[in-house]
């Protein structure tokens, strides 16, 4: 009955808004007389397919900055914090699974992350989560826009031509305006998988280029590091593991929700392996000069084909994530701008969806031209909204909603909450400071070539 109930609520926002308390089976059937006619097609996902979905959602921009993070942290702290944050990501996934299944057991409708906030703290909890989710997703789109535009610049540059950032942003906006008209995410599954494949190409080319250096730099404990660099590097690692807000939606679509821990641990294991290889190879070959994996070397006599291929692949990878995240943000904006259409079956009217898409892309265009420093932007996101969504909310909701936990579990959630607060305070200050310094040092004013 839970899966039938959730299937109906997934397509009926008006009905969902009427559910504000745990309901019995009889109450559900009286509210939804056609419930039994829906079938059981909603819960169809196996845990291996969910593990792939999690990897597709999370593995993305975060991998590009790990070499730079290791350059600031060194081998010992870099590897330690990579595994420590990976362990924290597993904790977050398991806690979200427990919260979701407990809410369903109490007959509380859960189809997304914000519903966990409602289960613990009512409407105020849901609103708080929605606001933080919206801000996080909006600025992740800005990061996608910025990487895509800068990668396009490299593609053009490799052909002995110039393209300024403003013009590159305009081209990306034009491309994305077409892709964002896809309203059904099931139609972009191939794009998502292709995007993951595309990230492998620039990584391999980058490592191939830097391995050709005649001398190996020294590695170990960084000789020149400071508190701000340390905090920003740690925030970069944290950002690489963020994306847990989609977990409840995956859990309720599983054939066996109890298998979700298998999906979480396996996907985090795969991502950690990829991250460790990318960070260690980059730091080993570049040492303290390791940088954000986005700029590819050009030959003095010309521009190599490898540079063109790597930049094209990176652009395609980012655009794949841009399409998925943009679709999610569009739906949320649409529900706010056109509330009269909430509960509507089928796709939204094309002219309304186009209007929302223009608003989304206009925001990305403006902010991407104002904040052209990707590493600092990712650091701020990881330190603020990302930390709240990954650990802050999860620990608070667990302490509030899960009654009768053993003492060790309560202590564990409380410890996570304290560590999250400490890290957020430390990292937010440092990452914002680095962002402001980067903007102050920017050579070109915004919206100029």
What's the layout of helices and strands?
Elements: H1 2-10, H2 13-17, H3 25-31, H4 47-58, H5 66-105, H6 113-157, H7 165-179, H8 189-211, H9 227-240, H10 247-251, H11 260-286, H12 305-337, H13 350-370, H14 374-383, H15 385-401, H16 407-441
Helix pairs in contact: 4-11, 5-9, 5-11, 5-15, 6-7, 6-12, 6-13, 6-14, 6-15, 7-13, 8-11, 8-12, 9-14, 9-16, 12-13, 14-15, 14-16, 15-16
What does this structure look like?
- Residues 1-17, 34-41 and 297-302 have low confidence and may be disordered.
- The protein has helices at 2-10, 13-17, 25-31, 47-58, 66-105, 113-157, 165-179, 189-211, 227-240, 247-251, 260-286, 305-337, 350-370, 374-383, 385-401, 407-441.
- The chain has 449 residues and is mainly alpha-helical.
- It has 16 helices and no strands.
- The chain is globular.
- The longest helix is centred in the N-terminal third of the chain and has 45 residues, at 113-157.
- 71% of the residues lie in helices and 0% in strands.
What's the total helix number?
A: 16
Mean pLDDT reading = 80
Overall strand count: 0
Order of helices and strands: HHHHHHHHHHHHHHHH
Task: Decide which structural class fits the backbone.
Answer: mainly alpha
**Head-to-tail CA distance between termini:** 59 Å
Largest sheet features: none
- Would you identify the regions where 5 or more consecutive residues have pLDDT less than 50? 1-17, 34-41, 297-302
Using the alpha-carbon principal axes, give the shape.
Answer: globular
Rg over C-alpha atoms, rounded to the nearest angstrom: 22 Å
- Percentage of residues in helical conformation: over 70%
What proportion strand? Answer: under 5%
